[in-house]
């Protein structure tokens, strides 16, 4: 009995389910097929090598006097052909299989079918996902509701997830539905998937993200059409409102959060999360980049960080490029600049600066993309050099 004691833990594995190899969604099923096919191709060379290793060890053991002994043998063309040709063919097959599967199962690619027997007949359900510390927020823009740590979707309808994160990179994964996709702060990723069978499935964060990572799990519920409408109605009856102030409270780190629903959601909330401007008075990244694209703010525009009054709100200090947090409160006009210089005791404002591209002295401006003329009303400045004006 003592020899069989190591078998005691085996009953604990009875509840395990190979979800990756037995999924409930078409995308995950095709990924499982790719995994199985790749494994079988590799076994073509792995199994013979392992078997030959045992056979050679037994065949040429020291006690076997009948085995041939040829210490001067060093080359066999036929053996070299077998050793190199078979693995090369397997690598070519694996490469072709992986290339096709990678493009066919691209998470950004809209689904081309519901299952092997069903084509796509409905527009995908839009679900916006925010990875928090340490919980998941799901926003349904079409239905106007939201939920925390619970995802409900209809069966046999494509789902388009749009994902982002609040603080650190995380990974969104529903093994029974589709592959894994990363969610990153200040960025937006996309994942397409579908459930082909009703049920309750496990969703999780598959990338370590801190102390509460182990509890960052949620239930993904696949419902029929009527069941999904009932779920939306229940969420709408919850009475909670997810506005910007409530979101900032929800964003604070918390562990093992029970599922909750919100009856209404700020329609701009997700885009503000992506642009890191949920807080009042903070400039959105899209606005920063628009200014930078026009050459307006430069480095101040890159590092514009609003100082928050509540130090407990995550992201209170988000320095960029090592600069301390600060906020650009305004951009002065030409008239305001003159007033500022006058108040500082300077009567003559700075000469306008020519923003046209640099060119050699005495040469004509080149034509084409660099031959742009100054925009009317654009600020220009002439810088003296060697007694003459040189345009910069």
From TrEMBL:
Residues 12-109 form the Cytochrome oxidase subunit II transmembrane region profile domain. Residues 343-392 are annotated as: Disordered. Pfam families: COX2, COX_ARM. Residues 378-392 have a biased composition (Polar residues). Residues 122-234 form the Cytochrome oxidase subunit II copper A binding domain. It is found in: Cell membrane. It is a multi-pass membrane protein. The chain crosses the membrane at residues 34-58, 79-100. Keywords: Cell membrane, Electron transport, Lipoprotein, Membrane, Oxidoreductase, Palmitate, Respiratory chain, Signal, Transmembrane, Transmembrane helix, Transport. Belongs to the cytochrome c oxidase subunit 2 family. This is Ubiquinol oxidase polypeptide II. It comes from Paracoccus fontiphilus.
């Amino acid at each position: 009995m003592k020899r069989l004691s190591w078998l005691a833990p085996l009953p604990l594995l009875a509840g395990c389910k190979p979800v990756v190899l037995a999924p409930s969604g078409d995308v995950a099923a095709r990924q499982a097929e790719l995994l199985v096919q790749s494994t079988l191709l590799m076994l073509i060379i792995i199994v013979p090598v392992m078997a030959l290793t045992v056979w050679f060890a037994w065949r040429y053991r020291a006690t076997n006097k009948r085995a041939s002994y040829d210490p001067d043998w060093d080359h066999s063309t036929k053996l070299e052909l077998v050793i190199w040709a078979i693995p090369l063919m397997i690598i070519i097959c694996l490469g072709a299989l992986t290339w096709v599967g990678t493009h066919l199962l691209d998470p950004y690619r809209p689904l081309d079918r519901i299952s092997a027997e069903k084509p796509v007949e409905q527009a995908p359900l839009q679900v916006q996902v925010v990875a928090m510390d340490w919980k998941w927020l799901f926003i349904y823009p079409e239905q106007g509701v939201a939920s925390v740590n619970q995802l409900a979707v209809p069966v046999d309808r494509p789902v388009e997830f749009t994902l982002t994160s609040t603080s650190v990179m995380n990974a969104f994964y529903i093994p029974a539905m589709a592959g894994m996709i990363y969610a990153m702060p200040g960025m937006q990723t996309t994942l397409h998937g579908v459930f082909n069978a009703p049920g309750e499935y496990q969703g999780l964060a598959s990338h370590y993200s801190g102390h509460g990572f182990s509890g960052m799990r949620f239930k993904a519920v696949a419902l029929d059409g009527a069941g999904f409408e009932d779920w939306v109605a229940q969420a709408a009856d919850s009475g909670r409102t997810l506005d910007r102030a409530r979101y900032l409270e929800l964003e604070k780190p918390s562990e093992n959060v029970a599922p909750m629903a919100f009856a209404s959601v700020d329609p701009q909330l997700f885009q503000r999360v992506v642009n890191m401007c949920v807080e009042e008075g903070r400039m959105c990244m899209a606005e920063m980049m628009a200014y930078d694209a026009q050459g307006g703010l430069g480095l101040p525009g890159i590092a514009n960080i609003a100082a928050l009054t509540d130090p407990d709100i995550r992201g209170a200090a988000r320095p960029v490029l090592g600069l301390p947090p600060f906020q650009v409160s305004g951009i002065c006009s030409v008239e305001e600049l003159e007033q500022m210089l006058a108040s500082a005791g300077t009567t003559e404002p700075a000469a306008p600066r020519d923003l046209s591209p640099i060119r050699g002295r005495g040469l004509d401006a080149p034509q084409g993309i660099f031959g742009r003329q100054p925009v009317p009303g654009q600020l220009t400045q002439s810088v003296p050099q060697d007694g003459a004006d040189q345009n910069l």
